[in-house]
């Protein structure tokens, strides 16, 4: 088995996640919707569930990345600002301890490759957004939300409570005014209802 074949096997079977649970005492912590944390390169965050946004430290309105559910957050930066869009459960591990144990089990290369693949996926997502027109960007974000929350006009029509015009604008990298115009067009087409709280898929 080649290295890449082994890595694919490890990823498909979530072996890194299982290994983390077995080798570390993962103490769960909770970040409520709207709360923020700052992490450093000295720790790694292991998400269990929820939705975190990585914000630009200098310009909070800019969303650099987002992390959903069972993701590992690692940074080489001095500080990383994260805010919760929904209640998020996570644990932290000392980076040095994690790397030492991964190295002992010959898993460190797989860990870094997984981090790199996640980053590459995020870059591809960023390229998709940047290359699209504002209307397409808003529709792409809404489609992703519909997919994540398994929304259905009949059985599960409610968008998450955090979805507002200004949040949608941040995700779609559009102005609030432009986003509002696009959403109003969707309302006129009968695609969504924004008069209710939360919004409804129609």
- What is the β-strand count? 8
The biggest sheet amounts to: 6 strands, antiparallel
Helix/strand order:
HHEEEEEEHHHHHEE
- Unreliably modeled segments: none
Give the helix tally: 7
Helix content: 40-55%
CATH fold name of the largest domain: Jelly Rolls
Strand fraction band?
A: 15-25%
What's the CATH architecture name of the largest domain?
Answer: Sandwich
What's the CATH superfamily of the largest domain, by name? Jelly Rolls
Oligomeric state of the chains?
single chain
How many domains?
A: 2
Protein name: Crp/Fnr family transcriptional regulator
What does this structure look like?
The protein has 202 residues and is of the alpha+beta class. It has two domains: 3-130, Jelly Rolls; 134-201, Orthogonal Bundle (Arc Repressor Mutant, subunit A), CATH 1.10.10. Helix content is 44%, strand content 24%. Strands 1, 2, 3, 4, 5 and 6 form a six-stranded antiparallel β-sheet that branches. A two-stranded antiparallel sheet has the order 7-8. Strand 7 and strand 8 (200-201) form a beta hairpin. The mean pLDDT is 88. This is Crp/Fnr family transcriptional regulator.
Fill in the keyword field for this structure:
single chain, 202 residues, alpha+beta, Jelly Rolls, Arc Repressor Mutant, subunit A, 2 domains, 6-stranded antiparallel β-sheet, two-stranded antiparallel sheet, 7 helices, 8 strands
Could you write a compact summary of the structure shown?
This protein is an alpha+beta fold and 202 residues long.
């Amino acid at each position: 088995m080649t290295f890449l074949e082994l890595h694919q096997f490890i990823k498909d079977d979530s072996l890194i996640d299982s290994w983390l649970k077995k080798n570390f005492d993962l103490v769960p912590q909770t970040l409520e919707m709207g709360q923020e944390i700052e992490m450093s390169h000295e720790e790694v965050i292991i998400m269990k569930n929820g939705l975190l946004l990585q914000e630009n430290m200098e310009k909070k309105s800019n969303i650099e990345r987002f992390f959903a559910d069972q993701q590992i957050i690692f940074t080489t930066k001095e500080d990383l600002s994260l805010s919760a869009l929904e209640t998020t459960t996570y644990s932290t591990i000392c980076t040095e301890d994690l790397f030492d144990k991964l190295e002992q089990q010959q898993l460190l290369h797989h860990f870094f490759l997984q981090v790199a693949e996640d980053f590459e996926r995020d870059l591809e997502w960023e390229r998709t957004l940047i290359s699209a027109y504002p209307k397409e960007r808003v529709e792409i974000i809404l489609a992703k939300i519909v997919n994540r929350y398994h929304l259905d006009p009949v059985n599960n029509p409610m968008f998450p409570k955090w979805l507002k015009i200004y949040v949608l604008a941040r995700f779609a990298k559009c102005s609030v005014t432009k986003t509002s115009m696009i959403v109003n067009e969707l309302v006129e087409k009968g695609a969504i209802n924004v008069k209710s709280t939360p919004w409804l898929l129609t």
